[in-house]
Write a structure and sequence with these properties.
CATH architecture of the largest domain: 3-Layer(aba) Sandwich
Helix content: 25-40%
Largest sheet: 5 strands, parallel
Oligomer: single chain
Distance between the termini: 69 Å
CATH class of the largest domain: Alpha Beta
CATH superfamily of the largest domain: HUPs
Number of helices: 13
Number of domains: 3
Number of strands: 19
Length: 396
């Protein structure tokens, strides 16, 4: 199909397409277009665009022998069809084609070009030697409804303080809940950017979204919380992730970004005889960034606490390690309610292990208290009632 097109063809992957959509939607401002060679050189030397921070050049340089041949033969003013997954994604009018140093680009994104780094290894496979720039038109430009939804919510609430939180909730646990509630205490509106990676997640996006939405709908003032899916393409990777997060949040209308203490790229570095962090570089974005406390459950305080305020030692703390909680769920084990709300565990397990029980009704009536009426029950209901038994304390 592509070979019959009048225009020359450049094949791009879904991550490149996503980044181009971000650009077209105005979410990467101050970047407003694909960069030419002169602009690339400026960003490499200053890490700024129009005196505003942007950590690396925004370019289109797809890998592949066929792409390389096409780009070498293109001239200014010619049209180039961008094909993604076999379909026309956009048409670009070529301004310039120029050679890049792939290793230099990798170092700017990840801080290293070492192929043992998983991000470097992944990006190097999709990065070519030639970049193309020019104006482009999307074949199917879809309005960003979430951007409009946030704007409407801000106007409706007359919101002045809008907090953004980047979350994977893989899975949603009590510390996530605490962070969301805390953000509502100090803001008029909270926007949760639910991360949607291109690589397969342990919990599918739709399931993580459903769990988060259940929590918001049932336990929070839902008119003050908005979920926005965020496709975390390659530009969100590496040492500059916080900068890109802040830029995107700002362009969505947020005034504050809250990040966790273990957020990627938050580490210290040494510059001009001074210890600095990435936060020292984001002062001109126009958004406040705060680092959330680490939350644990203290068996002395008998509640969820910050490690900054709890006087008891680590041996009294139950930590919220998402990977370990997820491991319990993947094994079909119900996490303790102190880690994950029982309704969330029930929702997740009922979707992860569909039709798990051979005779659900028999187990339901044999193990659980019933009202005497014969009723059908779901696996989600069974998990909830089973967890109520776990919480019985008179025999323990």
């Amino acid at each position: 199909m592509a070979s019959q097109r009048k225009n020359r063809v450049l094949v791009i992957d879904s991550e490149a397409a996503s980044a181009l959509e971000f650009l077209k939607a105005g979410l990467l401002y101050p970047v407003v277009s694909l960069m030419n060679k002169t602009e690339v050189s400026e960003v490499l030397s200053t890490s700024t665009v129009n005196k505003k921070i942007f950590p690396f050049p925004f370019i289109l340089a797809p890998s592949g022998k066929r792409n390389e041949v096409v780009l070498q033969e293109m001239h200014a003013g010619e049209k180039l069809d961008l094909i993604c997954n076999g379909e026309l994604f956009a048409t670009l009018i070529v301004e310039e084609v120029f050679e890049i140093d792939p290793k230099e680009r990798l170092r700017h994104i990840y801080g290293t070009d070492d192929e043992t780094h998983p991000g470097v290894r992944s990006t190097s496979k999709r990065l070519g030697k030639y970049a193309v720039c020019g104006d482009y038109t999307l074949a199917h430009e879809i309005p960003d409804l979430h951007k409009e939804y946030i704007k409407e919510a801000i106007e409706l609430l007359n919101a002045k303080n809008i907090t953004a939180i980047m979350m994977a909730v893989n899975p949603l646990h009590r510390a996530h809940e605490k962070l969301i509630r805390q953000s509502l205490e100090s803001s008029d509106l909270t926007v949760i950017f639910l991360l949607k990676p291109y690589e397969t997640a342990d919990l599918q996006y739709n399931l993580r979204y459903e769990a988060l939405k259940y929590f918001i709908d049932n336990y929070l003032p839902k008119n003050r919380v908005i979920i926005v899916p965020l496709e975390t393409n390659y530009i969100f990777a590496g040492i500059n992730e916080i900068i890109i997060d802040a830029i995107v949040a700002k362009n969505y209308g947020c005034t504050k970004l809250t990040i966790g203490p273990n957020h990627a790229g938050l580490g210290m570095y040494y510059d001009s005889n001074t210890n600095k962090s990435i936060l020292d570089r984001v002062t001109d974005i126009g958004i406040n960034i705060s680092i959330a406390s680490e939350y644990v459950y203290c068996n002395i305080c008998k509640t969820l606490v910050s490690t900054n305020t709890c006087p008891h030692g680590q041996h009294h703390h139950i930590s919220y390690h998402a990977e370990s909680i997820l491991e319990l769920l993947k094994l079909g084990i119900v996490p303790p309610a102190v880690l994950v709300r029982k309704e969330i565990s029930a929702l997740l397990l009922s979707k992860m292990f569909k039709n798990r029980f051979k005779n659900l009704e028999k187990m339901y009536y044999n193990l659980l208290p019933i009202g005497g009426l014969l009723e059908s029950h779901t696996e989600e209901e069974f998990y909830k009632e089973l967890m109520n038994l776990y919480q019985t304390t008179s025999l323990t």
